[in-house]
Amino acid sequence: MQIEHRISVSAPPERIFSIYEDVQNWHAWDPDTKSASLDGPFRVGSRGKLTPSKGNTVTMILTAVVPNRSFTVESKVPFFRMVFEHELLPIGSNTKVVHRVTFSGLLSVFLGPLLAKQLNAGLPRTLNNLKQLAETASAV
Prior knowledge:
By secondary structure, the protein is an alpha+beta fold. It contains two helices and seven strands, in the order βαββββββα. The protein has a seven-stranded antiparallel sheet, with helices on one face. A hairpin with a 2-residue loop joins strand 5 (70-77) and strand 6. The longest helix is centred in the C-terminal third of the chain and has 32 residues, at 108-139. The radius of gyration is 15 Å and the shape is globular.
């Protein structure tokens, strides 16, 4: 199961990526994140923790990082895996931001529909907050 939302942001990919790299402040623009931390630099293999606004803290690992273009975070619990992809696509002076979440594993049949409903409500808010932060910061 996969959920995807997009938004156009009037800021360069570098500005948006710098917001992504500031993991401890993800909660400032992602209302579904209570806290997040990374034990090490923002690169493939670095591990951290994410506590959602609703739910238990999960471990996460950066599985792909292309500076100023994309990054992927993976979280696993027994019988369930979530992959969060973040893409930045430059289009003229704007950047198309894509957030995609994929669920897999035995429990995805049960947890997928529940989480899909939450993500379809939450991702547009998250993207709007990211847009506002990136556009405001780039104007300063």
